[in-house]
Amino acid sequence: MSVGTIAVLMPGDMGHAVGRALRDHGYRVVTNLTGRSSHSKNLAQAGGLEDVGAISEIISQADLILSILPPASAPTLARDIADEMAQQDRKPVYVDCNAISPETAQAVGRTITESGATFIDAGIIGATPGKGAGPRFYVSGPDVQPMLELNGKGFQVLQAGGNVGEASAVKMVYAAMTKGTWTLQTALMMAAQRLGVRDTLIAELEHSQNATLMAMRARIPFLPADSARWVGEMEEIAATFEQAGVTPDFHKGAADIFRILEQTPYAEETRADMDASRSLEEALEAYVQYLPKS
Q1: pTM to 2 decimals?
Q2: Is 73 exposed, middle or buried (0-12, 13-18, 19+ CB in 10 A)?
């Protein structure tokens, strides 16, 4: 198939940057901003995405749809798209790029394929296009060629297998390590803060684990900006582990940490406007205010 117009739903931090990269490589990139926040609209404008105004127009104009949004919203968007495709003759390829479990990916895939469209399972790993080496899209399913043709267009596209769910599995186990580690570090630092040994622990880390401490300083103060959407991701990881016969409890706990961070005033920030000068110590003093009272 020839891909000329690509829809990105929705233009958040990752979505708008992916859309900008595709536009820079000659594609027409469209989206639907109905009901979206002013922040999303600003990101879409920054990415050069064209608002076509309705899901029906997405179906009638797009050759390929990239679903990039918080994981809890993935099944609903797929159902909305499938319902609209049932009303039209056009069946654009649908790519779910969300942080969802293999089982959720398979359910979303069934929703799309039952409407007569091709479905591709995808998992995104890495920073947004334009930052460093850019992200890698792992893809799986019976026909992933439409996505493979986007390789090098601002990001890498790598085949993860022939079955829907394999790309999502790669994303889940990778994010289990990265975000799971961040939440473990946040949890232990909050415990040290509450127990009155924060400074002693930091001194020990400076002596024996300085690289880890530096990474914690660079990450922990800024997690709240993403905490709301990462709760759902941790729940999907927990479901993935349970399906694999591995304890889901680590990442249920990680979801709990993000719920705490979501309550803090820092959660109102975005990646674009967060206070980059905030220290680890300052953040911890705020975070522990939202722990359950002992």
Answers
A1: 0.95
A2: middle
